[in-house]
Amino acid sequence: MAYMSEEGYKKLVEELRVLETVNRPEISRQIAEARDKGDLSENAEYDAAKEAQGMLEMKINKLKAIIADAKIIDESKLKTDSVQILNKVELKNLKNGMKMTYTIVSESEANLKEGKISVSTPIAQGLLGKKVGDVADIQVPQGKISLEIMNISF
Description:
By secondary structure, the chain is an alpha/beta fold. It is built from 3 helices and 7 strands; from the N terminus they run βααββββαββ.
């Protein structure tokens, strides 16, 4: 089961719609066009279009599985007394004093450029359940980091 925000769920449904109604017919058209060019045994365009079709169908099936397993979180029931999914967490690295803010989201919504980290990352796992003022010692590939929780919000 994948927990996600309603916004994240809607993005996945829209992406699936585009793949099925725009990309799928386009690849079918490319396959038909390549097939019309004759001998399929030496037709690179046909092979490429068939491979693209296979990749597209895999992506469609993966999205369908994610959507089927999705559990939309009721944001009105979220609390900020301890860190949980969909919380925005302000942190301070105790080693270098650097401050950062992350929103903990589902894997499908993660985007580091937007400050959204997956709930399955080591940092998010180390923060879950902690309260403001707590220090989380988290094992990351570069070693152990100590992060103090400065604020929890939505």
